[in-house]
Amino acid sequence: MNDKPTPPTLDPSAALAAPVPAPDFAAFVGIDWADEKHTVCIQKAGSTAVKQQQVAQTPQALSQWCNSLIAEFPNQKLAIIIEGNRSGLIYHLLAYPAFVIYPINPKSAAKYREAIYPNGSKSDPLDADLLLDYLIHHRDRLRAWVPDTVQTRTLGQMAEDRRTLVDSRTGLLNTLTSRLKLVFPQVLELFDNIGLPMIAAFLGKWPSLSKLQKARPAQLRAFFYAHNSRSEELIQKRLELIAQATPLTEDVATLTTATMMIEALVLQLTKLHQIIAGYDKQLMELTRSHALAPIFESLPGAGKVMVPRLISALGTQPERWSEAYDLLCFSGVAPVEISSGKQYTVAWRWNCPRFFRQTFVEFAGCSLKVCAWARAYYDDQKAKGKEHHKAIRALAFKWIRIIWKCWKDQVPYNELTYLNALKKKNSPLLSKLNKPENTPIISTSA
Known about the structure:
The longest helix has 37 residues, at 252-288. The chain has a 5-stranded mixed sheet. The chain has a two-stranded antiparallel sheet with strand order 6-7. It is of the alpha/beta class. The protein is 54% helix and 10% strand. The chain has helices at residues 12-15, 59-72, 88-93, 106-116, 124-138, 150-183, 186-190, 197-205, 209-212, 217-226, 232-244, 252-288, 293-297, 306-314, 324-331, 354-367, 372-383, 388-409, 415-424; strands at 27-32, 37-44, 50-56, 78-83, 99-104, 336-340, 343-347. Helix 6 (150-183) packs antiparallel against helix 14 and helix 14 (306-314) packs across helix 16.
């Protein structure tokens, strides 16, 4: 390629000299996708020549390019490599049965580029050519991407989007808390959980202490009743606190700006509460109709939020996770072993999908409240000196193997079955279940 930068310490033609590709594909395609146009490198099977093209990021241009490629290789398969699996381009390509898509982790592609061009050379044509080279030489390290069912992918994306919205809400609540501490700290005394929709409605009516103290007790009482807060003792305590409250500051500038900010934050929070509630409703309906729902609903601590996340994590394709170890590694819960000479280290696995890992780690945390053996295992890890997050990850490691087995066998989780398995293995974990009232009865049968 004429516009390929040539590093001084490496001959690119020697580094990228392609052997004759395997004959199971008619051609190999590397795509470096971008927002406006994509750079494409194509190499026919049985040839070392590479043809470079550019395709505009428009539905018409993409369809025209795909159809022309299929026409050039009729009734044959074409291997295509592209970074990531969230690009809209991938879903466009999947509409053509002739294409077999091989997504590659962007970090893997970047490391490969560094290995070939250690001087840091980078361009779209170069990246497309390197992707093509990786596909031809290392296709055995890639896995063709077969999308899961529409229902499962919808669940997964909605669950992740919901988490993004919840994180945004958390940021707004943190900002709101700081402003309330500045001019209206009484709200933090009135309510234990500022994240409730009721508090946004409360501040929407009374964003400052001066406005709140002008409200009649009957108005306040009606508000609490309307939001299902009907404890007479609690209402009376709140009314007394409001009546006796004194301003934290009388500075006009601080009161004016902080109150305006509180009103702005409340408007955003009110809308976010509604949107998240809508997501919860949709997720619940989709989960209820999913074939895998009974398996994941049987897991202790997996409520309406975690079940759809676990369903989408495992998916419906039996070949996706042939072993529990595959799932452990992909999730990032399994650590990385680093051995060199006499040195041996167990390290945190950085290269993994963050939300995917969070799903299993957060579920493990949820299980502590309702699962006796999970609590006993966590307490044992803490007793060994592990900090909270390490203990939770260790518990997630155990849970992933259990979840994988249930998913593989298509059977709901049964605590009794697991405890019987521990008993057969004479697991020391059984002796740590020191809360008889929380421990299920272990049968003596096989």
